[in-house]
Amino acid sequence: MTSVITGDIIKSREAISEDSWLIPLKSALSKLSNDASFYDIYRGDSFQLESNSIEDSFRTSVYIKAFLKSIKGIDVRMSIGIGTKDYEGNSVSESNGEAYIFSGETFDNLKKEKQNLKIKTSNNTLNEELNLYFRLALIAMDNWTVNSAEIVKLSLEYPDMIQSQLAKIIGINQDAVSKRQKRAYLDEILELDALFRKKIATLL
After folding, report:
1. What is the mean pLDDT of the chain?
2. What pTM, to 2 d.p., does this model score?
3. CB distance 200 to 57 below 8 Å
4. Helical (H) or strand (E) element with 98
5. Three-class SS of residue 70?
6. Long-range contacts of 34-41 (CB under 8 A, 24+ apart)
């Protein structure tokens, strides 16, 4: 079993410059995988990332979204496909299998369905349940400000840090960190991540 995230930058052509989103995207993907063969950027503003840890796929998607939304005017849409991997090529774009097909098919419908995060597995009941949770979570995530996205990004990068330590990184006080985390609905998103892990574990 593996997970494949397919995504693209929303309204990338409206960005001031390609570097405004391309450099952060490359940085986010490289932080998530030490092996460049497990991620790829193609067609200019599209990307694919494979992770053998299927339980991490929601958290990984949240991290990518937070990383990119911490840049003003940038957002991302993504699909998660979880399933088998039948062929391993030299790069993620050359590999194939159930997870790749699920991710690609779901991604092709995202723009039409106007949903920025969706999942597909072999379990249709699980898909319906998780995608409802995603739609609810996106009410918060699609409306993150730059500051909200930044605090989510840092909180995921340094999960063991307390608020005062995060505050020193950003250069604000602890109370401001607490307020930004609340406005980002970070606690609720982390609760959803915990639930997601339990649900996805049933596929193994």
Report:
1. 94
2. 0.95
3. yes
4. helix 98-113
5. coil
6. 37/90, 37/91, 37/92, 38/92, 39/92, 40/91, 40/92, 40/93
